[in-house]
Each structure stands twice: as C-alpha cells, then as structure tokens.
Amino acid sequence: GNSVTQMEGPVTLSEEAFLTINCTYTATGYPSLFWYVQYPGEGLQLLLKATKADDKGSNKGFEATYRKETTSFHLEKGSVQVSDSAVYFCALGSNDYKLSFGAGTTVTVRA
Amino acid sequence: KAGVTQTPRYLIKTRGQQVTLSCSPISGHRSVSWYQQTPGQGLQFLFEYFSETQRNKGNFPGRFSGRQFSNSRSEMNVSTLELGDSALYLCASGPLAGGGDTQYFGPGTRLTVL
Fold first, then answer.
1. B107 cis-preceded (ω within 30 degrees of 0)
2. Most CB atoms within 10 A, among A8, A87, A100, B26?
C-alpha cells in the first residue's frame, strides 16, 4: 500500500536559518504529494502541493519538488521566522480516495 | 468562501457512551473525509464519502460509522466509547471526484473520553 516516511523531529532552528524536512514515499501509480502545516490547537492547513513528477510546489517561501526518481518530496525554506514554528506533515493522495500521512515533524524557531 | 466547519469543537464523554460529530464542507465540495489524530498513531484515515456514497474506509472497528447527506454535510458516530477513542477528529472536504485531489481541513473536534 501507499506510505510516507518523514524526517523525525523535533527540529529547532534560529531565525533566518535554512530549513529542510525530508519526505519519501512508496506508492503505486502516480500519486499527488502535499505538505500540510498544523499550528497549536488548529486543524491542518495546506501549505503546498505537486501533482506530477518534476512539479515544484511553493507557498509563503516554502518549496518542494516532486522527484519520482528518488520518490521524494522534501520541504525547504531559505530563511525561517518564529511564526513558522508548527508541525509539518507530508502526505500522499492516490486513487484510493484518502491521504496517507507521515508522522509529522515539529519545528521550533527561536528568535 | 467559508472553510470547513466542525461541531462541536470540544466534547467530553464517558466510557460506554456514544457520540456524533458533524462536518460541513466548503460550499460546492462533494467529497468529505474523516481522520483521527492521536499522539501515538498520528493521522489515520477513517472514511471518505462522495455524493452520499462511502468510497473507502480505514482500518477501524465497526463502532466507528459515518454518513453523508444530500447537501454534502457529513456526520460520524462512535458507539460504546473507549478511553483510546480520545483524539482530535478532523474532517476534510475536496472539490473534485477523483482520488488524490486536494483536501481542505476543518479545525477538528477534540474528543475526550473519561
């Protein structure tokens, strides 16, 4: 079946540091890939997505590229802010009408 | 456009009781999914509905059930509650019929079972 493996946290960074969260997947066919973010006490917010190989999703300074050859969808941001502190989830969507999530990575950015 | 709404936001129940959670999708969305989030198991898929039909169901006991109405609103029910059912229950809606489409999440219902 489909599965997502996500870099374990927690990750602690200083403001303006570079952030990378690794995500790899196993899937049959051609899945869509997503990054969601969850702030304390809230639901999941869609951060970015990519629907086919070599697509790059981007939003709020975050980027991720769908790499079919390495089955990866790593999240990057060049300069993080305190407001980026949250839990980040990598997810895969396929023709089984559900999202398969990674375990989540907690990111804390210190001023 | 209003986002996905879930009611109630918080619930406290005791073991053996049953509970019904409600979800209103984004206007125009016909796909509704439910997920359970716990610290130990992470995010787990419960079920997905499209046009009142359940298209997929996760690996949960029969105590967990759901339905979707003709206006796309959805409810999930958990009967004979157990302590392990304490979780954040998230509803998501999607605009399209296909699998793999973007899902937009509500704020969740926090269920505590005592």
1. no
2. A100
Residue A43 to residue B105, Cβ atoms within 8 A: yes
- Contact between chains at B90 and A104 (C-beta distance less than 8 A): no
The per-residue pLDDT for B17 is: 98
pLDDT at B1: 72
CA–CA distance, B24 with B30 (Å, rounded to integer): 10
Q: What is the mean pLDDT of residues A37-52?
A: 94
A103, A6 contact by CB (below 8 A)? yes
Burial of B91 (0-12, 13-18, 19+ CB in 10 A): buried
pLDDT surpasses 90 at A28: no
Q: Say whether B98 and A95 touch across the interface (CB within 8 A).
A: yes
B39 contacts chain A (CB < 8 A) = no
- Per CB-CB distance under 8 Å, the chain B contacts of A98 are 33, 45, 48, 56, 58, 99
Q: Which of A44, A97, A102 is facing B55, going by the closest CB pair?
A: A97
Low-confidence residues in chain B, pLDDT < 50: none
- Work out whether the CA dihedral A17, A44, B108, B78 comes out positive or negative: negative
